[in-house]
Every structure is written in C-alpha cells, then in structure tokens.
Amino acid sequence: QKEVEQNSGPLSVPEGAIASLNCTYSDRGSQSFFWYRQYSGKSPELIMFIYSNGDKEDGRFTAQLNKASQYVSLLIRDSQPSDSATYLCAVVKSGGSYIPTFGRGTSLIVHP
Amino acid sequence: DTAVSQTPKYLVTQMGNDKSIKCEQNLGHDTMYWYKQDSKKFLKIMFSYNNKELIINETVPNRFSPKSPDKAHLNLHINSLELGDSAVYFCASSQSLENTGELFFGEGSRLTVL
Q: Where does the pLDDT of residue A95 fall: very low under 50, low under 70, confident under 90, or very high at 90 and above?
C-alpha cells in the first residue's frame, strides 16, 4: 500500500462547479496534512494545511480531515479555469524525520 | 526578490558527466531540502539540512553529494550522471524542523541526461 494515495485524474469539472480532490494515507499516526498546487512546468505552492479533524476554510478552498478514515480532501468552490493544475497531498507521519511524504497528485481541469 | 532561487534552470548533459545545482533562500529559514520529481510527477525527498547539518539522506546513491556552506545555501553535486537521473530537482526550505510540511520551493532545475 502506498503511503499517500491520490487518484491521478484528470478530474474535469465545469467552471463554477465544486471540485473535490481526495487523498488517503496509510500511517494512522500521521499528524499534519498539506495541499500543494503545481501548475504545469512550475514549482509546488502550498495552499492549505490542516492538523485537526474537521473542516478548515480559506476563501474558495476547504480542507477536510477525517483521521479515523485516514482521509483528507480539498474542495474548491466556484472553480475557475485558473485552478487547473496538479494538486499534491502531503502528509507528515508520526515519529521519524517529520519530512512530508507526497502523493502523486491529481490533475484538475476546469473547463469554461 | 525570489525567496528560493536555484540555478541553473536547465541542464542537458551526457551520461557520465558531473553537474552541480545551486540553491539559495533569503527567507531566513533554518531547514533546506532537495526533492526529485520524476516524469510521473512523484515528488521524493532526497536530502534535508538543518542549520547546515545533514539530517536526512533518503537512500540516494552516493553519486549525489549535497553541501550546505551556510544555512541559506544548499548545493547538489551529481557525479557520473545516468539516464535515470533525468528529472526536475527542486530545492525547498522551511522555517524549521517544526514546519517541515510548510515548504517554499525554488523554480526547479530540469536535468536531462542523454
């Protein structure tokens, strides 16, 4: 089982819709969870992080964490074509080096 | 002012050659990293330094040698390049070891080995 799993997509949504990006992780003791956005040919950019169960909202973005199900998601409301990118989930495990493990990313396409 | 800058952005070289990539951050961060991103976009940690000290070396061949002259700089030297080394190499920094998930990435250095 991969440590951090994401559906590679592409996930295609129409402009204005809600895009839902999902991530599961294998280490039950994982502590902190991050979402990065990476435009094609560019570097990853941190957009959200969440440490506690529940929802965390920032503008059009909502991160959701369910530690019991080992599941973290990112919702993008009112999706725009400029949101088209690859979204990388990163998880910091308990113990060890505290270096985040990245998933392979989900490609999101928002079409007009 | 670019927060994390790395040079060069592109390297094209032959198998067996040696190459270096330089990275500098002006954020005042304590911790710096090298990540490798392959053609399938998988981002994998290679090395991490905290205040110039190596703390992570993730099963990277010893042809790869990082060096941190001070906490604002982290360089990567690669000897005897192989085809499989072709990838994008990202330098990153975080404020400290307590913020390892909050990474600031450089623009990447795309290495192509022919």
A: low
